[in-house]
Amino acid sequence: MYFELFQQFQKTLGQMETWLHAAETHAKANNYPPSDTLELRLIADQLPFARQVQIACDTAKMGAAALSGKTAPVHDDNETSLEQLRGRLANVRAYLGTYRREDFAGATERKVSQARWEGKWMTGQDYFLQHVTPNFFFHATTAYALLRHKGVALGKKDYLGERTMRLPE
Amino acid sequence: MYFELFQQFQKTLGQMETWLHAAETHAKANNYPPSDTLELRLIADQLPFARQVQIACDTAKMGAAALSGKTAPVHDDNETSLEQLRGRLANVRAYLGTYRREDFAGATERKVSQARWEGKWMTGQDYFLQHVTPNFFFHATTAYALLRHKGVALGKKDYLGERTMRLPE
User: Fold this and answer.
1) Is the model's pLDDT at A9 over the cut of 80?
2) Interchain CB contacts (distance < 8 Å): A and B
3) What's the rounded Cα separation, in Å, for the pair A157 and A154?
4) Does the structure's ipTM exceed the value 0.95?
């Protein structure tokens, strides 16, 4: 189910683009610079909004790459506007859109490591279940929470997006 | 991967129990009633902390039941203390612990519906990917964000818990 969950991540990144539009609308209606949004935090020692969006993007792209033996595109974490953050979201969505089910054929058994893990590693399946999936939704939801706290007009449907509902038979 | 993701949900519910202990410690150190925690919100029209915990529990238990043709245990949403919320988390963790991989054998093709969906339904796979997984992590992370905003001492490792790292070979 790797492929299908990365498709869900891709969908959620698309929802996040709509949140940034709502944040821009809120800033204009309340006469503050839209780029102030990038600095939002719930508490002083929390990573700001821009980092939450960047890490959600990175978790998805690096997860897909690590689980398929590819190299993810690099992003420099230098966005200074909501428009630039939307560009990053769109870029990572497009990158995830290049993946096919067969790219994840050997994902479960891959050895995955990160520089900060000091040589330790996880199996592809453990990495996906214990790291990628909870982290992705953590940073997406934290970004959403920061906007809710600021008063941006968002609701649960903006988080989930359209679900594939079938009509009564 | 249904079974494995429900195991991850079970683990996250266990992490949430540790957050409630941290919330109790914070309340005592700052001289407010621990049960005030249940009313925390980031903004007036948001469901309070207690509901976030209850819905995370319900999303996991109802997801597992719906995808395996079982009936989930009922909880009455009447918790008035952190201790009672921890009891609910422990109860749902134990319930998820009764599941075996084979319970989800037909999950992908099941028809899943909810009373509020007015007869519409989702396939088991769509329900799991588009509803259960994003909703579960949404409510867990929102509960975490509410505690962070209040100043409770929590960090990312308290969200993820211990990951299965392998030693360098």
Assistant:
1) yes
2) 128
3) 8
4) yes
